[in-house]
Write a structure and sequence with these properties.
Blueprint lengths: L8 E3 L6 E3 L1 E4 L1 H4 L12 H17 L3 E3 L8 H10 L7 E6 L7 H15 L4 E7 L5 H9 L2 H11 L2 E8 L4 H8 L5 E5 L17 H7 L3 E5 L6 H9 L5 H13 L6 E5 L3 H10 L9 H4 L4
Parallel strand pairs: 3-4, 3-10, 4-5, 5-6, 6-7, 7-8, 8-9, 9-10
Antiparallel strand pairs: 1-2
Helix pairs in contact: 2-3, 2-11, 3-4, 5-7
């Protein structure tokens, strides 16, 4: 069933891109054993992953997000195979992790390898693959060759927009957001990780700040990476884990400050459940109401 006509799509900040409210996160198809312990290197898994990618595109998911280190390039390679024929119809993002000794030439070489694996001549969003930024690491990034290199690659047309990713919010992440060096922010946020957008206070946090700065906002950990499921199963052993995952995604989709929730999908079943959550009219949660204390 083609759900494109009823798809929930959102503007990605000031980029001018319009993307599906759920994006296809590439970690789950790239990293061996990711969250489930299953082998990602078999021909059987590759066929399953390619079927999921195809089903996502046909259903209306148009944002696909990977990283060079997802399985040493496996995630990018699978996207390259699965999306080669529809490149002009999707928004494609990947990531790189800066390291000491980087030069514009070495960064360009690494980007070239990502483009080869993705089977494209450009990515729409190239993101710094950050983890937990400190003041020191944030300053180091801003003073490195990366910001100027981003501008050069934009001028060459190999990237369209520069992005920043971070697992957790911090004052250092806020300083990077305020630097105006990045067009998008991807950060950990969800039912069990609400510090990035705390609805008890407004909302408050780095996600609303990024929106104020005109940045597009994407979030990782939409399904809590299994934390919610393990917590609930410890008390309610008969509870349906997949329903908990859907609830967690609904929570993120109900946050107006979020443009796109990234969800790892390895099977057509995962895709179908995600599509149900972004059909127009899918139920949302009133975050203001559930945070009222009286």
């Amino acid at each position: 069933m083609d759900l494109k006509v009823s798809m929930d799509q959102r503007d990605l900040g000031r980029t001018g891109l319009r993307i599906s409210a759920i994006g296809f996160g590439g970690a789950a198809i790239g990293i061996d054993g990711y969250l489930d312990g299953h082998d990602r290197g078999s021909a059987e898994f590759e066929a399953q992953a390619l079927s999921a990618i195809d089903a996502a595109f046909r259903g209306g998911i148009n944002y696909f997000d990977s990283a060079a280190n997802y399985g040493s390039g496996r995630g990018e390679t699978l996207f390259g195979k699965g999306l080669a024929g529809v490149r002009d119809k999707i928004v494609l993002g990947t990531k790189f992790m800066p390291k000491d000794g980087d030069t514009p030439a070495s960064l360009s070489d690494a980007l070239g390898l990502s483009l080869q694996r993705l089977q494209t001549d450009h990515v729409d969003i190239l993101q710094v693959h950050g983890l937990n930024f400190t003041d020191e690491s944030a300053n180091k990034l801003l003073q490195s060759c990366v910001p100027e290199w981003f501008r050069e690659e934009k001028s060459l047309g190999r990237i369209r927009f520069a992005g920043l990713t971070a697992e957790t919010p911090s004052g250092a992440v806020e300083s990077l957001v305020r630097s105006r060096q990045f067009d998008t922010l991807q950060i950990g946020y969800g039912f069990t990780h609400q510090q990035s957008c705390d609805y008890r206070w407004g909302p408050f946090g780095v996600i609303p700040l990024a929106r104020q700065m005109g940045m597009g906002v994407m979030v990782m950990r939409a399904t809590t990476s299994g934390v919610l499921q393990r917590l609930m199963l410890s008390e309610f052993p008969d509870i349906d884990e997949r329903r908990l995952a859907r609830l967690a995604i609904r929570f993120v989709l109900s946050t107006p400050e979020v443009d796109c929730a990234l969800v790892g999908m390895t099977h057509i079943r995962d895709v179908e459940e995600s599509l149900e959550l972004i059909r127009n009219g899918a139920p949302r949660i009133d975050l203001v109401a559930i945070n009222k204390r009286r």
